[in-house]
Design brief:
Chain A is an all-alpha fold. In chain A, about 70% of the residues lie in helices and about 0% in strands. Chain A folds into two domains: about 230 residues, Cytochrome Bc1 Complex, Chain C, CATH 1.20.810.10; about 120 residues, Helix Hairpins, CATH 1.10.287.980. In chain A, strands 1-2 form a two-stranded antiparallel sheet. The termini of chain A are far apart. Chain B has a single domain, classed as Rieske [2Fe-2S] iron-sulphur domain (Rieske Iron-sulfur Protein, 3-layer Sandwich). In chain B, the strands form three sheets. Chain B has a three-stranded antiparallel β-sheet with strand order 1-9-8, with no helix packed on it. Chain B has a three-stranded antiparallel β-sheet with strand order 2-3-4, with no helix packed on it. In chain B, strand 2 and strand 3 form a beta hairpin. The radius of gyration of chain B is 30 Å and the shape is elongated. By secondary structure, chain C is mainly α. Chain C folds into two domains: about 160 residues, Cytochrome c-like domain (Cytochrome Bc1 Complex, Chain D, domain 2); about 35 residues. The longest helix of chain C has about 35 residues. The chains are: A mainly alpha, B alpha+beta, C mainly alpha. The interface between A and B is medium-sized, with 15 and 13 residues.
């Protein structure tokens, strides 16, 4: 018999073939995390939430039928007679709202603590890309049940894209595969929704990769008493993340099992009828801000440009804000600016869910102005002033 | 070595062998176990959704169909579909019946006496049929489920016969498989009976009423 | 303090789950008679009354097995409507035009989600079914319309014939088939049709919340231990 230490250990076997595995594990275990607060656990919540969406989506797609005549009935079949189908579907339809809520707070945290700044631009850009893909995926997914809200939501958005001068109409016909929203378009929406799930999964991988390149941002950095001490990710932060995920799942459970009506639109329990627009037509809350922007601008093209522009300015934010400071808590002007921006975003969300009244129209216009003012005027000016101050300090010392 | 035999603890209580787990160890193990259990429970509805739903299982109910036979002249055959399965009905000539009885053929067969339960009791005979004149078989090869064609092999007595195109299994006119073929069993005979001289009812056996496609050794 | 918080949460969760049990209970009946849930009596009302005009097109006959365990009974019911057990409970009318013609110009709506989609919800349905009154002398009704003050809040002309009459059927559990009783039962049934997994959903939700409570308590304790040990 061979001596004990000559037996090939399974560890050794893998290490020889995947030599990067051990350093990778060591990197994850020892990944130094600065003293971050609870807001930094939302990333873990998003990963778990997205994994739940992806898995439930794959299993739901086994029962969904994208033929225009059967789509609605297949959703009803999932809800009524596929074993556990209603449970999987409630994960999927409830999960999206919680996911967007976590995503928006995650983003707001990045804004507040300057997580978009050098050297984390790639993390920020990949995150914004993820947000855009989430919105497209959620929109495509919402069309699939082919209920009243699905149909009319899709109709409104396709008409918004139609506003692009010159190419709008042919582009929409090309994308839908026919002149009107119909059988070909529904199948395309299904494939788009399904494929985007996996594309998002890949970009989440990139997002995490970029994060691990630079490490998490530090919320104490600009404070009078910055803490530079880091702890390894495992076990302390892993368990903290686990705790937050529990809370996230409890919230999800509470909503989907006890208050599902909060997240489902009544009109989407009625099959699509191209001859009758439902009276209560509103977008899902997570798309409501952009819908409010589209609605607030009298020109179709203008609305589209401003809705896209409002997201686009987030992409150039790392270059708009060249201040050496990160944390909005210690940047008085930015602090006020961001609080106003958050309020404007909330106002737009609420406005998008209301019937059009002059009040809401003007509130959305005001909020939109605030949005652009904060990012295009306030932030560059504050950054300029703060750069100036810090260069003065450097000269003095 | 100063220990005295009196002080030596029983090995089971030796702290060195089994160090007492700390509070942290217990909590870590507990949380990992509980989290794993939760993840496994979460998987239940996902796999549950793959189960056949009750509504579609009603399609499996035993159904019968009546097949008229007057359009078959001796030597002809036809294929009908019963419960989604192809069923070949052949009307035999006297020549085919003689061939089925011939010892030259029986020595070539894997199961000439139909001992394997591939037919209801009333078809456990040389012709594997209730009335020798009519042979009725589910033409699904017992090897890997292809559908054998009606085809005579010139090297064996002309009893009528079935040949599977997938892996070359040869069956005789009574659906019995030849020796050393990929197919292990004879072609199944469905439960059936004659309503009158010109009509058979598939799906219902008079001598063994419990016989269904689930009773077959291999379908 | 933490203990008090936990017990409060427990009570909340239990009270939510108990509410379901109460919802599913039938009124007390003599021991010799079978007990029936309101939804089950409501199914009888639907089978004998509503289904002669209304469809539940997204529900199959077989889906009723939760309320009617006998498959044969469901098969027979489906057969009466020339359908199989795995086919939808379709409208008795061959098309919309015929349905309208038979009901004075209004098509009887599908009932798959009626308690959710109708303004006023289940209360409205219950009140309409019990809301028929003799026509007051100062009102002249259009042909094929019926006087129902509750329904007139939604319609100018209400064209559903009064569907329920006292003692028009007999329930196996001995419940007296009065109009308010049948109206309440069939409303319960329609709520079940709209949301058939309500009871299961609340049960699973409670279990999941309890699990998460225990799991997060352990995680929290562990997190505190690690924090203390590692400073």
């Amino acid at each position: 018999m061979k001596p004990h230490d000559q037996l090939p250990s399974p560890h050794h076997w893998l290490d020889e073939r995947l030599p990067f595995l051990k350093p990778l594990c060591r990197h994850i275990v020892r990944f130094p995390v600065p003293p971050v607060n609870l807001l930094w656990t939302l990333g873990a919540c998003l990963i778990v939430g997205f994994a739940l969406m992806l898995t439930s989506g794959v299993f739901l797609s086994l029962h969904y039928d994208s033929h225009i005549e059967q789509a609605f009935a297949s959703i009803e079949a999932i809800d009524r007679r596929i074993p556990s189908g209603w449970l999987l579907r409630s994960f999927h339809t409830g999960g999206v709202s919680l996911l967007f809520a976590a995503l928006y707070i995650h983003l707001a945290r990045g804004l507040w603590y300057g997580s978009y700044k050098a050297p984390r631009e790639l993390v920020w850009l990949s995150g914004l890309t993820l947000m855009l893909l989430f919105m497209v995926t959620a929109f495509a997914g919402y069309v699939l049940p082919w209920g009243q809200m699905s149909y009319w939501g899709a109709t409104v958005i396709t008409h918004a894209i139609e506003a692009i001068p010159g190419i709008g109409r042919p582009l929409i016909t090309y994308l839908l595969g026919e002149n009107t929203l119909g059988a070909v378009a529904l199948h395309r929406f299904f494939i788009l929704h399904f494929a985007l799930g996996f594309i998002i999964a890949a970009i989440i991988g990139l997002h995490i990769l970029f994060l691990h390149g630079t490490g998490s941002s530090n919320p104490t950095l600009d404070s009078p008493h910055p803490v530079h001490k880091t702890r390894p990710f495992i076990p302390f932060y892993a368990f903290k993340d686990g705790l937050a995920v529990c809370g996230f799942l409890a919230l999800l459970t509470g909503v989907i099992f006890f208050f599902p009506a909060l997240l489902t639109k009544i009109s989407n329990t009625i099959p699509a009828d191209p001859l009758k627009t439902p009276a209560d037509i509103t977008p899902e809350w997570y798309l409501a801000p952009y819908f409010a922007i589209l609605r607030a601008i009298p020109s179709r093209l203008g609305g589209l440009i401003l809705a896209l522009g409002s997201v686009a300015i987030l992409f150039i934010l790392p270059w708009l804000d060249r201040s050496p400071r990160h944390n909005a808590t210690y940047r008085p002007f930015l602090r006020i600016g961001l609080v106003i921006f958050f309020a404007a975003f909330l106002t737009l969300t609420i406005a998008g869910l209301q019937r059009v009244t002059p009040l809401w129209l003007w509130l959305s216009r005001g909020s939109l102005a605030v949005w652009f003012f904060v990012f295009l005027v306030l932030i560059p000016l504050t950054a300029y002033q703060e750069r100036h101050i810090s260069s003065q300090k450097r000269e003095m010392s | 070595m100063t220990e005295t035999p009196k002080e030596k603890a029983h090995p089971a209580f030796d702290d060195q062998l089994l160090p007492c787990p700390t509070r942290r160890d217990v909590l870590t193990t507990g949380s990992i176990a509980l989290g794993g259990a939760g993840a496994c429970t979460l998987a239940v509805p996902f796999f549950d959704s793959l189960r056949q739903s009750e509504a579609s299982s009603t399609l499996q109910d035993q159904t019968t169909i009546d097949v008229p036979l007057q359009d078959l002249s001796p030597g002809e055959h036809k294929i009908v579909v019963w419960q989604g399965l192809p069923v070949a009905i052949q009307r035999r000539t006297t020549g085919m019946l003689h061939a089925l009885e011939s010892p030259a053929l029986l020595t070539l067969l894997a199961d000439p006496q139909s001992r394997t339960r591939q037919q209801p009791r009333d078809a456990e005979n040389l012709y594997r049929s209730i009335r020798p004149e009519y042979g009725v078989f589910i033409t699904i090869c017992t090897h890997l489920g292809c559908v054998p064609n009606y085809q005579n092999n010139p090297t064996i007595p002309a009893s009528g016969g079935f040949f599977c195109p997938c892996h070359g299994s040869q069956f005789d006119g009574a659906g019995r498989v030849l020796r050393n073929m990929p197919a292990p069993y004879n072609l199944p005979v469905p439960p059936m009976h004659f309503i009158d001289d010109r009509t058979i009812r598939l799906g219902e056996s008079l001598t063994s009423p419990d016989f269904s496609i689930n009773s077959l050794q291999q379908l | 303090m933490r203990r008090a918080l936990f017990s409060l949460l427990w009570m909340l969760i239990l009270s939510i789950s108990m509410r379901d049990v109460g919802y599913a209970q039938a009124p007390s009946t003599p021991p010799t008679l079978p007990t029936m849930k309101p939804e089950q009596r409501g199914l009888m009302v639907f089978q004998q009354v509503c289904s002669s005009c209304h469809s539940i097109q997204f529900v199959h006959y077989g889906d009723m097995s939760a309320l009617q365990p006998s498959r044969t009974a469901l098969k027979n019911w489906a057969q009466q409507h020339h359908a199989k057990i795995d086919e939808p409970i379709a409208s008795p009318y061959p098309n919309v035009a015929v349905g309208k013609a038979a009901n004075g110009g209004d098509y009887p709506p599908d009932l798959s989600h009626i308690t959710r989609t109708i303004k006023g919800g289940p209360d409205y349905i219950r009140n309409v079914l019990t809301g028929y009154r003799p026509t007051p002398p100062d009102i002249t009704l259009a042909p094929n319309t019926y006087y129902n003050p509750v329904a007139l809040t939604h319609h100018h002309h209400f064209k559903m014939r009064p569907p329920l009459h006292d003692d028009m059927m007999s329930f196996p559990d001995g419940t007296k088939a009065t109009i308010p009783q049948m109206a309440a039962d069939v409303t319960n049934f329609l709520q079940w049709v709209d949301d058939p997994h309500r009871t299961t959903r609340h049960f699973i939700g409670t279990a999941v919340l309890l699990y998460l409570l225990v799991f997060s308590t352990i995680l929290f304790t562990l997190w505190r231990v690690i924090q203390k040990e590692e400073g």
